Amino acid sequence: MARNVNFDLSHPLMEAGLESPVDEEGVHDSFSQLIAEQSQNGGMSDAYELQQLQRELDEEGQDNVSYLSSPGREFRGRIQERRDVKLEEDERQTDPLIAERWSSATLRILSSMPSRTIGRSRGAIISQYYNRTMQLRRRRQSRPSIKDFSPSARPSIRCYGMEADCTDGEGTDGSKRERLVNNLQNLSVTDRIRMLRAMPLSVAEKGELRRLALQKEKQTLSGSKLPCCSRLKYYIMIAVRQSWYSWLSFLHSLQLWQVALKRVSGRFGTGVLSYFLFLKTLLFFNFFLFLVTGSFLVLPQAVHPPVLPAGRQPFSGLELLTGAGYFSDTVMYYGYYCNDTLNKTCKDDGAVLSDSMSNTATRDCESKRLSYNMPLAYFFTIGVAFFITCIILVYSMSKSLSQSFRIDKSHSILAMKAFCSWDFKVIKKTSVKLMSENICIQLKELLAEVNHKRVKNTMGQKLWRLMVHGLAWAICIASTTACVVGIYYFSDYMHQNLQQSSRSVIENPLLHEASLLALPVLVSLINLLLPGLFNLAAWMEDYESPSIRTYVAISRNLMLKVSVLGVLCYHWLGRVAADPSSIGLKCWESFVGQELYRFLLMDFIFTLLDTLFGEFLWGLFSEKVLKRRRKPVFDIAKNVLELIYGQTLAWLGVLFTPVLPAVQILKLFLLFYIKMSSVMMNCQAPRKPYRVSQMTTIFITLLCFPSFLGASVCVTYTMWSITPSTSCGSFRGLKTMFQAGKLWVAEMEKDNPNLSVLAKAHSYLVENPLFLFVGAGIFLTVIYFHSQVVDGQRKIISLLQEQIENEGEDKKFLITKLQSIHEQKRTPRRLTSQDSAC
Q: What's in the GO CC field (predicted)?
C-alpha cells in the first residue's frame, strides 16, 4: 500500500522514532463495506461457485487417457513427479505453511479469500471510491442516488488470481475511472487530497487520477464562458489560496533549528537527537518564564527606577563572572526592587511619584490612577509563573507517556519504515539527502533491535554479573557520597570565612569578590569529573544493550546532581538566609541570587572546557598519536543531566534574580551551536545502533519531578517561612513574603466591603496550604490514571495482536486440512484408475 508520509522531526512520534500509516481506519472501513456488499448481493453466486468447486474436486482424480497411452510419456511423467517431489521439499524448507504443492482447487479457494482480493482489485477500489466521492458530493449539493447506476458499477472482490476474467471488462473499468475522475473534479481541493490519500493504490495511479482530475477541471474552466466578474473572482480566490499556502510554507521554514536537527538525526540517530530536542524544550520554558517576569517585574521597575544610594561601585569587568559589584544595584537582583505602589500620573504636575505602603509615609500625590503594587506583582508573578509551568510540564509528560509507551513490534515498524516513510513531495537535493540518511539510520536502529538476541547465561555467569553490578554501584555511591560530604564541609568553610571577613576590614575587594567563585568551581569540577568514573564503572559492567547502559548512566548522574543541589539548598536557605547578619549581609536575597548566577555561569564554562578537551582535543590525540580512527561517542546521559542541573538552578534563582531566565536562554543558545558543531566534527555514531523510543519521556519526567518539584518546594518554603531582608526588596518590613497578599486583600476589603468574598477565597485558596496539597494530589492523580489508561491500552493491543496471530494459525490449519482431505480423495481414485489401466 503506497502512501506519502511527511517526515517531520518536531512531531512527537518522530522524536520517539515511530511512525504509523495515516487514515488506515478509512481504508479498512471501505474494505468492510466491500465485503458486506458482496455478501448481500452475491450470496447465491458464492453458493453456486462452491457447488461447482465440489464437482471439480470429485472429477479431478479421473484417468487421463492421453497421458497413459504410451510408455514414454509414463516414463517422462515419473521423472516429472520426482522433480515435483524435490521442489516440494525445497518449498517445505522455505515456508512452513507449504506442506505440499497446492492443488488447483486449493489455489482457487485461496484466491477467493477476502484477504487475497481486497487491495488488489483495482476496479473494486475505483468503484468503492467512486461511491465515496458521490457521498461527499451529496453532502454539498443534490446529486442522483447511487441506486440509479447499474449493478456493474458496483465493486466485485471475487475472481482475483483466477484464469477466468471477472464480469467487468476493461471498458467497464474505464467508465468507472472516468466517473471517479468526474467526481474528484467536483470535490473541493481538501476533500480531493484526502480521498486520493486514502485510496489503497500505487503512487503512480494516484498521480494519474490527480492529473486527470486537474486536466478535466482546466478544460471545463477554459471551455465555459465565465463572466468577467466571475473570472476575476476565480483568479482572486486562486491568488489568495496560493498566498496562504506560501505563508504556511514560510512559517514552517521558520521553525527553530529544523535543518540542523534533521542533520543530527540522519547521522547519529534518535539518541543524540533527543538531547537537542530536550534543549529546545528547555529554551521554550525559559522564554516563557522570562516573558512573564520581564513583563510584570523587570519592565515596570526599569521604567520607575528607585533612588540609588551614593557611592555605587564602578564597573570593573569581574562582575561578568561573579555577578556582584556593579550588578548588585540593577534590575538583575531582588534587592533593587522597591516596596512601593507605582503611580503613572498625578493631578499636580503629571510627575511620576511613588507612594509607600506603610502608614507613616506621606503622599505627595493625591491621585492613585493606574497604580501598580510592586510587592503584590512580585508575589503573584512568581506564583503564577510556577503554576503555569507545572501545568505545561504535567501535560507534556502525560502526552509523552501516551505516545512513547506503545506496543509496536519491531518487525511491523520496520516494514512501515521501509515502505511508507518516504515523502515523495521532497525534491530538493539537500532535503533528499537528509531524508535518506535519516531513514537509513532509523532502519539500522530497527534492524539492531530485531536482530538482538538475549543470551541465556548460566547460574555462575549470573552470579558473576551480579557481583560486578554490585561492585560498580558501590563505587558510584561511595564516590558520590564522598563528593557530597566534601561540598558540605567546603561550603561550611566558605561560610565561616565570610563571617571572619565581615568582622574585619577588606583590603582588596576584588580578591574577596573573586574568592566567592571557589565553591561554584569546586561543584562544577565534580560534575565534570565524576561522570567519567561512572562511565568507567559502566565499561566494567559491559552491558549488552546500549539503551540499558544509557538509562543506568542517567540514574547515576541524577543521583549526583540531586545530592549536590540538596546540599547547596541547605547552604543557602539554612545558613545564609537563617542568619544573614553574621556574615554582614544587608540583603541576603541578592547574595543568593549572585550565588546562583555564579553556579550557572561556571556550569557553562566547564561545559565548554569539557567540549574542548573531552571531545575535540581527545579526538585529535586519538587520531594523530594513537592512530585510531574511532572518535568519541556523544555522552547522552551526562549532557542531559547537565541541562537539567542548569534548569534547576534557573528555577531556583528566578525568585532572587528575575533576569536569570534571560541568562539561561543565552546559555542554551550558545550551548546548542557549540554542541552541534562538536558533535558533527568530533563525535561519531555509536557502534551498536539502538532505538530510544522512551528517552524523551524520561527526560520530561526527570525535569518535572526531581527538578521542578524540588525547585518549587524551595521557592515555596522561602516565600512562606523565611523572613525577608528589612532593608531591601519588595517585601521589606514583612514577616514573610506571603503577607503581601494578605495586606492587599485586607486593604481591598476595607475600602470596599462588598469584596469580602474575594478575601475569603484568598484565605481558603492561597493562605491555606491544604489547597496546595489538594492541587498537587489532583495532578498526581491525573498522571496516575493516565498511566493506568495507557497500561490498559497496551494490554488490549497485546491481546489483539495475539488474537491476530491465532487467527493466522487457524487459517494455516484449515488450509492444511483442506489440502490433506483433497489428497486423501485423490489418492484412491488414482490407484483405481491405474489398476483399471493395467
A: plasma membrane
